[in-house]
Structure formats: structure tokens, C-alpha cells
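REQUEST ID: PR-0412
SUBMITTED BY: lab tech R.K.
PRIORITY: routine
TASK: structure prediction, single protein chain
INPUT:
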Amino acid sequence: MEGKVGIGLRRDISREILESSRLTPDFLEFAPENWMGMGGYWNRIRKEAVDRYPVTCHGLSLSLGSPEPLDLEFIRELKVFLDENHVRIFSEHLSYTKSRNAHLYDLLPIPFRKDAVNHVVDRIRQVQDLLERPLAIENVSYYTPVAAQMTEIEFVSEIVEKAECQLLLDVNNVYVNAFNHGYDAREFIGKLPLDRVAYIHMAGHEQVGPDLIIDTHGQPIIDPVYDLFEWTIQRMDPVPVLLERDYNFNELDQLQEELTNLRNILKKHWKVTHDAA
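STATUS: complete
OUTPUT:
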């Protein structure tokens, strides 16, 4: 899958992916929580997708930053799902989404602190042991730091090193955070352990004010994010690249254009082919 370009399997566009040539991804990404235990029609869609495409999974609910213990029963069920669907890479967010068993339905930032590093590292190691596979953690967008005692780059890099896990590099999230918090996006990426990147996410965002960008996954990728992506891939070996789109699926031709744009950038710098699955 190195150098291939994929898209998330969303129900809104599942038929267009599986039954037409309007979208031509090389692989698909599932949010496992949206498909685990699903029967009937959507279970058949999942099986067809797995039969036709390589698959990665991007989790939503491990809540690596939460104070309460990990949900071990869920992780065991997740392992079965990942194994049955021949998932190539499993990733999760470097955030927390639960507190006292209440699901917050948002990706909240973990404080950039040494004690938080140790807490998250321990949880990642537990998850990797239970899943019997490496975990790729994603750098998330955030809108205010919480009780920070270290920089974001120190926080992310130390967790990856100590947990011996992989990194899911979300280029758009770096761009969003750099804009909102006033740091240099290229300098940030240049300091990341790029040799640990398992794959890359690319997405759109929305600027809602002169000094605020919201990470939405609902708009087209803008040129500065493409530029940051191109700068990044020249500093690392080929990995899969995923186009994230969570809503606004009306313009399928525009989505296909984004897949093509990503492929064209990759062809300039990586020796890969891009035949659709």
C-alpha cells in the first residue's frame, strides 16, 4: 500500500465506491466502531469492500488520554474485527473522548505534560499487547492547550518513542494547529520522527475568522495544505495516503479530483504506481 491513495468508507458514498468508477481509491479506511456488530445490508457492504480493497482502520473510542482504565472487552472485540477484516494498519487519536464512562463525542486535547506522556504510553503499550499489532497515533487538532508544561512536538515525539508505536501524520491538523497557535508547520513536521509514520491523512478545513481555522473534514483541501504535504513527503519514505471527508459528498467529481491531485504529487517524488484496486 506504500504510496497508494485511499478514502474513508462512508455510507453516503459506499455504492459509488463499490458500483461505479466515479471514485477510484486504492484502499479504504473504516472507523471500526461504525461497522462492528453490524448485520444485514451494511454488513454485506463491508464484506464486499474488504473483498475488493486493502483496508486500514481509524478508531474513535479508545480514548487514550482518559483517566479511567481501558475498556478491555471492547479492545478484545476490536481485535477480532481487525483480524477478520485483514486490516493492514490500525490508528487512533492522541486525545481523549470519554470521562467517567460518558462519551463526549469530540476529540479533546491531552495536556502536554510528562505525567500525561507516561499515562498515554502505558495505555498504548496495553492496547498494542492486546491487539497483537502496532498502533499508529494521530496528531490531533486542538484549539487551546491545557496546562501545558512542554511543547506539542516534544509531547508527540516522546510518546511515539517511549511507546514504540507508529505515527499517523495528519498534515491538515499540523497546518490548522500552526495557524491557530502561531508556529511554523514545516519546522514542526521536520522535528517529528518521520521514520515512524505508518500513513498520512489529508483533509479540508474551514477558516471561520482571521485567526481561527476549524478542522472540519468537510471542505476541499486548500493549496497551502497541498504544499505542506508535498514538502513533507520529500522527507520520508513512501506510505499510504488517505483523503478524509466526513460530509459534503454531493460533488463526487471534486472528491475524485482530490484523489488525483494527491496521486500526482506522489508521482513527482515517490516511485509508485496508482492502479485502483
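NOTES: The chain has nine helices and twelve strands.
REVIEWED BY: pending
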